[in-house]
Every structure is written in C-alpha cells, then in structure tokens.
Specification:
261 residues, alpha/beta, Rossmann fold, seven-stranded parallel beta sheet
C-alpha cells in the first residue's frame, strides 16, 4: 500500500479500459489522480468510484488531439497542485483496415490521437513534471510496434511512433537534468472495450481467470496497471528509455503473431 503516496498523476483515456485500471490502482496506492478523457461521463464515473473508495481523484475533460485542451488541463493541475509526478499517455483508438484500405482520414485520426496526443502531453507536461522530485512518463504503446499487423495498419504505425518518440524524450530529460523518466509499455491482447470493438463484440466481456495464463489467452487490464504502478513509483528510479512487453510470451515465439492491445 501507499507505493505512490502523495504523487499527482494524470491518466489519459482514464474513463475506461486500461486507463480506468491505471487510475483505480494508482489511487488505491495513494496518488491523487486526474482522470482525463474526452468522454466526460466515463471520467466522472471513474473519479466518483475512486472517491467512494476513499481515494483522491478529479475528472478532467481532455481531447488529447487538442493542444488547447492539454494547455487547459495542465493549467488546472498547476493551479491546484503546483506539479505533476506521473503522466500516463494511454488514450488510443483502433481502426481495422489494412494498408490499402486505410483512408487518409483514418490514418490522420490515428496519428492525431496516439502520436500528436502523446507529443502534446509530453511537450507541455515537462514543465510540470520537472517540478517533481521523481517524475515519470509512461507511454502506452503496443506489441503492434514490434510485429507486422496488417489489419491494424494505422494503429501499428502510431504505436511505433510512440515507441521511438519516448526514447528521444527520455534522453532529452537526462540531457536537461530533469528528474523525469520515460518508459513505454507494450501490451498484447488485453480484455478492454478497444479489443472488444476490434473483435466485433463491444460490451461482451470475456472472463480472464486468475493465476498464470496459458499462451494465447487475453490479459486483464490489471496486468498492465501493475506495471504502470511500478513505473510510477520510486521503486523504478533506475529505469528510463525502456520498453516493457506485457505479452505473456508472444515475442519469444518466432513466426507467431496474434492480436494487439
């Protein structure tokens, strides 16, 4: 308990899926969490759930593709808290279309959310994060940045950009002397609304059992949230520029590719 006590965290896409799990766990471990989402109702519901459990949370409207929204969000946090300790760039969308089927509009939309959104979050967040004694940026990429997923072309391209951008930001923070670490997580198939939508079963939950899972099973949002918590905590102080696969062994099976987060 209290592994991130006193820390101020912002989680994008916090109203559902992986973001919701991140918010709940960070708050349970002592952080004040800003639940940021373009879906105001979702963000408010998660913030209310955290508060009902005795945690500290605030719902925050944020369209990650809008620079103005980012500036407004950070101004609010700066006024209320004076710093930011943890930024989790989690918001994402999935478009099912191969390289020939993907439209220009679809490609640009994927980039605006998952590349430009991460860029804005990091660029404008560094001023606040630099005020932290131990800042941590956690960018959610995907196994799609490591493999060829033709049906998820735009998504894969965006997640690849997140992977490479994060390394440059990590180096930048060290060069500037900022007390900020930057790492990426690369989930495989996780039971979230995003994967449900991609599989055509939105709202139809698939049970994820406890214990060690067999190869090919989907993971639970908590499998990602547990690593987010570690990277947000001071326990991970010597880790920056890293990429961490949350894939139940997918990457160690040559020739086998399945799913995305």
């Amino acid at each position: 308990m209290n592994r991130v006590a006193g820390k101020i965290a912002l989680v994008t896409g916090g109203g559902s899926g992986l973001g919701k799990a991140d918010c709940l766990l960070l708050a349970a471990e002592g952080a004040t969490v800003y639940v940021a989402d373009i879906n105001d109702a979702g963000a408010q519901a998660v913030a209310a759930e955290i508060t009902s459990l005795g945690g500290k949370a605030h719902a925050l409207h944020l369209d990650v593709s809008s620079e103005a929204d980012w500036l407004a969000a950070y101004a609010e946090i700066d006024k209320a808290q004076g710093r930011l300790d943890t930024l989790v760039n989690n918001a994402g969308i999935v478009i099912v279309a191969d390289p020939e089927e993907t439209t220009t509009e679809q490609f640009n939309r994927a980039m605006s959310v998952m590349v430009t959104g991460v860029f804005f979050g990091c660029k404008h967040g560094l001023k606040l994060l630099a005020k932290s004694k131990a800042g941590s940026i956690i960018n959610i990429s995907s196994t799609a940045s490591h493999f060829g997923y033709a049906p998820f072309f735009a998504y894969s391209a965006a997640k690849g950009a997140v992977r490479s951008m994060s390394k440059s930001i990590a180096v930048h923070c060290q060069d500037k002397g900022y007390p900020v670490r930057v790492n990426t997580l690369h989930p495989a198939s996780i039971e979230t609304p995003m994967i449900q939508s991609a599989e055509g079963r939105l709202g139809q939950d698939r049970e994820v059992p406890e214990g060690v899972l067999p190869f090919g099973a989907v993971g639970s949002p908590k499998d990602v949230a547990n690593l987010v918590l570690f990277l947000a905590s001071d326990e991970s102080r010597f880790l920056t520029g890293g990429e961490y696969l949350v894939d139940n062994g997918l990457a160690i099976r040559p020739g086998f590719v399945s799913g995305g987060d």
